[in-house]
Amino acid sequence: MKKSVYIVLTLVAAFAALFFLGYWMGWGITLNRANVERRIHEAWCRTDDRRAQDPSCRLDSVFTRKLADLNFRRLKFHLDTVALADSTVRLRSDLRYYADYARELEESRTFVIPLGDGERGVRAYIVNLRAESVGGQLYYSIGSLIFLCLVLWGVLKQREIIQGQDKLARMREDFSYAMIHDMKTPLSTIIMGLKVLRSGRLDASEEKKQRNFDILEGEAAHLLALTNKVLTLSKLEHEMLLLHPEFIALRPLVDDLVQTFTAKAQKPVTFRTDLRAEAVFADGEFLKEAIANLLDNALKYSKDSVEIRITSVEEEGYTRIAVRDNGIGIPLSAQAGIFDKFERVLPADDGRGKKIAGFGLGLSYVMNVVREHGGYVTVESVEGKFSEFTLSLPLPEEGAEEA
């Protein structure tokens, strides 16, 4: 069944539950009111009996006590003296059926207890009949509504979890497909190169033979880097990765990356560096890979001519390394999810129909590595203009490095 069918069934079930709950509440309140009216009549009859036994007793005290015996503690009433000749007067002997005293209680009054003079009587007026007839049932009704809301909340959360699982499953499928596709090319190149070398056709040309070896070595390094990135991410997420931070020179690291990406770039690229902080306290291997991921993204999601600026500065106890490009930018609505694993919120092609390779691991790797160092990553981007990622790595406290 499709999700839409489940959603429709859930809504129908919720409306049905609300309908039957409302019907049950109305039915229950009606029954409860009838029961309350009968018991009020019973309490007033017992008060009448007590008055017959002891004419000197106080009717208000007796009636209050009889109501309390029936667990009616919220009811309020007052007693009035009426003339027995009044046409609205109903004596106990006149009330033969439930409908007789129900009509009295509809107007919040009971039958009249005659006094000794034979001309007057005492009538009780119930001030707040609903305090018992509706109030008692209201507790159960509110409880049922709360329970129903909890059920609906649980259903909605379950729906959210299912959608999240479906999204994660789709991302994993996309990741598996992209990884297999990306591994297929170097593997095919390695197999083809090995076949050529094994055939002996290049034995006469040492230069071509050496170039083949270089290609094979590069493709093998590409596969190794890919697997290392996945393994490193897994270790970072399970807090199993051991870092060895130390003060490292930042300029040689950046110069090496600039040289590497200048050579591998397939479009014109200009690097500008402004390293005011010459050293950073970090694990050099993982920091270099994190910055490389930012440079790789800057080249992938860029225009025809690329300009990348790398800066560093020390401030507020952090060494901040920023990588800024003049690429296509990141929509504001997408910036919150770009560091999630497998997440690729940018277009899958570069605008010219050429597919952009990637698995959605690069920024997740960057975020996890910097977080493992005790730092954080920020992003500033304007769609169609630029993106700037800043890695903030904490400086060690005094004496921490020696320790």
Sheet with the most strands, sense and barrel status: 5 strands, mixed
The stretches of 5 or more residues where confidence is low (pLDDT under 50) are 348-356
Distance between the termini: 61 Å
Task: Give the C-alpha Rg.
Answer: 42 Å
Structural class: alpha+beta
Count every beta strand, where a strand is a DSSP E run of 2 or more residues: 10
Strand content: 15-25%
How many DSSP H or I helices?
9
- Series of H and E elements: HHEHEEHHHEHEEHEEHEE
Helix share of residues?
40-55%
Average pLDDT: 78
Strand order of the largest sheet: 5-7-8-10-9
**Overall 3D form:** rod-shaped
Tell me what you see in this structure:
With 403 residues, the protein is of the alpha+beta class. The protein is rod-shaped and about 140 Å long. The protein has helices at residues 3-53, 59-69, 98-106, 130-133, 135-199, 206-237, 250-264, 284-300, 362-372; strands at residues 77-83, 109-114, 120-126, 246-249, 269-275, 279-282, 306-315, 318-325, 376-382, 386-394. Helix 1 runs antiparallel to helix 5, helix 5 (135-199) runs antiparallel to helix 6 (206-237) and helix 8 runs antiparallel to helix 9 (362-372). Strands 5-7-8-10-9 form a five-stranded mixed beta sheet, with helices on one face. Strands 1-3-2 form a three-stranded antiparallel beta sheet. Strands 4-6 form a two-stranded antiparallel ribbon.
